[in-house]
C-alpha cells in the first residue's frame, strides 16, 4: 500500500511539474511575442544619419525564420522589403541627412544585393550624402559600399574584390570507393543535376552554361561599380585581377576607395557632414551615437501600408517537397495557402516570389494547378529572386508577367530521375539481401539494395520523358512558343536573367517592388496594403515539431564548420533526389 501511494504521489508531482513547465513556456511565448511592440524604438532626431550594416542574413519573409522557443516570433525580423522601404522613406524624411554604410560581409544573394544597391542609388537622387566605412569587407559588401560618395578604409583592414567563381562537388569516386551505384535517367544534355554522381569533373556543356551565367552576373555588378567609382573597364579589371583592393594603399591608388582612416576619423567626417557641434566635455562617439539610427530601428517606425484592398506576396523559397510544414516549399502547405488567397475577397492580386532550385515534379504540378485556379479569379505577377530554376520555373507558368534580375539564375527546363543502389556497399559490409516477389517488378523503387531491372529502367525513362513533355507544354502555353523552340532552350540548361529575357523566358527586369507595382496596376488599385503568405504560426507547436531537427542541424554546422557542413548537406540531398525531379541542374557554390 505504501508503495502504491508513493507511485501515485510520483505521478501527481510529475504531472504538476509538466503542467508548470508548459505554463511557463506558454507564458514565455506570450511575453516574447509582446516584446517587439514594447521595445519599439524612437524615431530619428533632426539631422540624423541612417546606419546600415546588414550583418545578419537577409530574409525575405517569416518562412526564412527558424523555429525557436524564446526568440522573436516569426514575422518580427527586418526583412528585405523593410530594408528597401526604409531607404525609400529616408529619402523623403527631413530628419535624415544621409546614410552611413558600415557593411562588412554581405549575407544575401546577388539579386538582394542588386535591390539594395538600386535603393541606395535612388536615395542619392535626393541630394543627401552616403558615406561608407570598412574594416574588412567581402566582395558583396564592397559592391554596396562603392555606391557611396566617399569610401573610407581602415589601414589594417582588407577588401577582397576578385571576381566570381563557381564550385561544383562531385561524388562519383565516393560511390566507386564505397560501392554505391547511382542509376540515373535524364532528359537533355544540359541536365547536369546528376553529373556529380556520374563524373569527376564538369562536362563541357555544364562549363559553358556556368561560364555564361557567371560572366553575365559579374558584368552586371562590375558595370555598377565602375559607374559609381568612375573607372574604365581596363582600370577595373586591372585592379580586380591584381587584387589591389586587398592592400589599402593600392586600393586608394587605383580609386577603389577614397581615404584610409581609423574609425574615429570616419566618425569625425560624419559629424562634420551632419554639422554636429561637439563641446569639449562631450565624447564624439557618444554625440554621434545620439544622431545615428540603425536601419532595424528605423524600420520599426515605418508607417503601416494602409488600404482594405490587398496585394498578397506568396513567398516560395527552398526545395519543392511533398508534405506539410515550413521547411522549403511543401506542397500541402502551399496548396492550402493558395486556396485561401483565392477565397479572400480583400486580396485583389498576388505576387509569387520564387527563390527555388526546384524539386519534386509531382509537388510542382500540384502547386501549379492551384495557381491556375487562383489566376482565374485574380492576377498573378511572378518575381524571381536569385534562383527560379526547373521546378522553380515550372511554378511560374501561371503568371500574367514574370520579373527577374539580370543576375537571376533560371530556366533548367528538364527532368531527371535517380535511384542509388547500395548493394555493393552492403555486401562489402557483410550484409546480403534476398527477395520473394509475386511479379517481375514487385520491389520496384522499394529497395536501395538492388539495381533496377530492364523493365524498371524503361518505366523510369518513360516517366521522365512524360514529365519533360508536360513541362515543355506548360512553357509552350505560358510563353507562346512552339515545342521545338522550348526544347532548343530547354534540355535542362540554366540561363542568367540577361539571357532569359533575350530568349523569352521572362518578361522584364525588375525586383520585388516592381512586381508589386505591376500587380497593383493589373488589379487597378490606387491604395492598397501588402500582406505576406504563408502565415507562419510559430510558437510552441511549431517549435516542438521542428526543435530536434533544428537543434541537430545547428549542432552539425557548428561542429563541422561552413565548408564541411555544405558537404554534409550535399550528401544528405542524395536521399531527396530519388524519384522524378524537376530540379536545378547542379548544386553550385558561387562566391
Number of helices: 22
Oligomer: single chain
User: What is the CATH topology descriptor of the largest domain?
Assistant: 2-enoyl-CoA Hydratase, Chain A, domain 1
Q: Report the average pLDDT across residues.
A: 84
| Major sheet summary line | 8 strands, mixed
Give the overall form: globular
- Approximate strand percentage: 15-25%
Counting helices, strands and paired strands, the structural category is alpha/beta
CATH structural class of the largest domain: Alpha Beta
Given as residue ranges, the uncertain stretches (5+ residues, pLDDT < 50) are: 1-39, 547-551
- Radius of gyration (Å): 27 Å
CATH architecture of the largest domain, by name, is Alpha-Beta Complex
Number of strands: 22
Supply the CATH superfamily name of the largest domain. Answer: 2-enoyl-CoA Hydratase, Chain A, domain 1
Provide the domain count: 2
How far apart are the first and last residues' alpha carbons, in Å?
A: 71 Å
Measured as a percent range, the helix fraction is 40-55%
Report on this structure.
The protein has 591 residues and is of the alpha/beta class. The chain has two domains: 48-162 and 243-300, 2-enoyl-CoA Hydratase, Chain A, domain 1 (Alpha-Beta Complex), CATH 3.90.226; 310-430 and 443-590, 2-enoyl-CoA Hydratase, Chain A, domain 1, CATH 3.90.226. The strands form five sheets. Strands 9, 12, 14, 15, 16, 18, 19 and 20 form an eight-stranded mixed β-sheet that branches. β1 (48-52), α2 (80-92) and β2 (96-101) form a beta-alpha-beta unit. α2 (80-92) runs parallel beside α3, α17 crosses α18 (483-489) and α21 (539-560) packs across α22 (562-576). The longest helix is centred in the N-terminal third of the chain and has 37 residues, at 2-38. 39% of the residues are buried. Residues 1-39 and 547-551 have low confidence and may be disordered.
Amino acid at each position: 500500500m505504501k508503495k502504491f501511494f508513493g507511485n501515485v504521489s510520483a505521478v501527481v508531482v510529475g504531472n504538476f511539474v509538466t503542467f508548470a513547465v508548459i505554463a511557463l513556456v506558454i507564458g514565455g511565448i506570450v511575453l516574447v511575442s509582446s516584446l517587439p511592440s514594447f521595445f519599439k524604438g524612437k524615431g530619428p532626431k533632426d539631422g540624423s544619419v541612417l546606419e546600415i550594416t546588414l550583418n545578419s542574413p537577409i530574409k525575405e519573409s517569416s518562412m526564412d525564420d527558424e523555429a525557436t522557443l524564446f526568440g522573436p516570433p516569426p514575422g518580427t525580423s527586418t526583412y528585405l522589403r523593410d530594408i528597401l522601404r526604409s531607404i525609400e522613406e529616408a529619402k523623403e524624411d527631413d530628419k535624415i541627412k544621409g546614410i552611413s554604410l558600415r557593411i562588412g560581409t554581405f549575407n544575401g544573394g546577388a539579386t538582394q544585393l542588386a535591390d539594395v544597391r538600386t535603393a541606395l542609388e535612388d536615395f542619392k537622387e535626393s541630394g543627401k550624402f552616403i558615406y561608407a566605412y570598412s574594416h574588412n569587407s567581402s566582395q558583396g559588401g564592397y559592391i554596396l559600399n562603392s555606391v557611396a560618395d566617399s569610401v573610407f578604409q581602415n589601414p589594417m583592414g582588407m577588401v577582397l574584390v576578385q571576381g566570381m567563381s563557381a564550385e561544383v562537388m562531385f561524388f562519383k569516386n565516393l560511390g566507386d570507393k564505397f560501392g554505391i551505384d547511382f542509376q540515373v535517367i535524364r532528359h537533355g544534355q544540359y541536365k547536369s543535376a546528376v553529373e556529380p554522381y556520374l563524373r569527376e569533373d564538369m562536362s563541357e556543356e555544364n562549363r559553358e552554361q556556368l561560364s555564361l551565367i557567371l560572366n553575365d552576373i559579374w558584368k552586371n555588378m562590375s558595370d555598377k561599380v565602375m559607374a559609381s567609382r568612375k573607372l574604365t573597364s581596363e582600370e577595373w579589371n586591372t585592379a580586380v585581377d591584381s587584387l589591389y583592393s586587398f592592400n589599402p594603399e593600392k586600393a586608394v591608388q587605383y580609386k577603389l576607395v577614397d581615404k584610409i582612416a581609423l574609425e574615429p576619423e570616419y566618425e569625425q567626417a560624419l559629424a562634420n557632414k551632419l554639422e554636429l557641434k561637439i563641446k569639449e566635455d562631450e565624447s564624439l562617439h557618444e554625440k554621434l551615437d545620439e544622431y545615428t539610427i540603425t536601419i532595424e530601428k528605423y524600420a520599426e517606425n515605418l508607417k503601416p501600408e494602409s488600404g482594405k484592398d490587398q496585394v498578397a506576396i506568396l513567398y516560395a523559397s527552398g526545395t519543392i517537397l511533398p508534405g506539410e510544414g515550413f521547411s522549403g516549399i511543401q506542397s500541402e502547405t502551399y496548396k492550402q495557402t493558395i486556396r485561401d488567397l483565392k477565397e479572400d475577397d480583400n486580396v485583389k492580386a498576388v505576387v509569387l516570389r520564387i527563390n527555388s532550385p526546384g524539386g519534386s515534379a509531382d509537388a510542382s504540378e500540384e502547386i501549379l494547378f492551384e495557381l491556375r485556379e487562383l489566376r482565374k479569379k485574380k492576377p498573378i505577377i511572378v518575381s524571381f529572386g536569385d534562383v527560379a530554376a526547373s521546378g522553380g520555373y515550372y511554378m511560374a507558368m501561371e503568371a500574367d508577367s514574370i520579373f527577374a534580375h539580370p543576375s537571376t539564375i533560371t530556366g533548367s527546363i528538364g527532368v531527371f530521375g535517380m535511384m542509388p543502389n547500395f548493394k555493393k556497399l552492403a555486401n562489402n559490409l557483410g550484409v546480403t539481401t534476398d527477395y520473394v516477389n509475386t511479379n517481375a517488378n514487385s520491389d520496384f523503387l522499394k529497395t536501395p539494395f538492388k539495381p533496377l531491372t530492364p523493365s524498371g529502367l524503361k518505366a523510369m525513362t518513360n516517366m521522365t520523358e512524360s514529365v519533360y513533355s508536360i513541362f515543355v507544354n506548360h512553357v509552350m502555353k505560358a510563353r507562346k512558343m512552339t515545342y521545338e523552340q522550348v526544347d532548343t532552350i530547354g534540355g535542362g540548361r540554366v540561363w542568367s536573367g540577361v539571357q532569359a529575357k533575350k530568349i523569352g523566358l521572362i518578361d522584364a527586369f525588375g525586383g520585388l517592388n516592381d512586381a508589386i507595382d505591376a500587380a497593383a496596376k493589373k488589379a487597378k488599385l490606387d491604395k492598397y496594403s501588402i500582406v505576406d503568405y504563408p502565415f507562419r504560426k510559430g510558437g510552441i507547436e511549431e517549435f516542438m515539431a521542428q526543435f530536434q531537427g533544428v537543434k541537430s542541424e545547428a549542432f552539425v554546422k557548428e561542429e563541422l564548420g561552413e565548408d564541411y557542413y555544405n558537404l554534409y548537406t550535399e550528401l544528405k540531398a542524395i536521399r531527396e533526389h530519388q524519384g522524378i525531379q524537376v530540379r536545378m541542374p547542379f548544386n553550385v557554390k558561387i562566391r
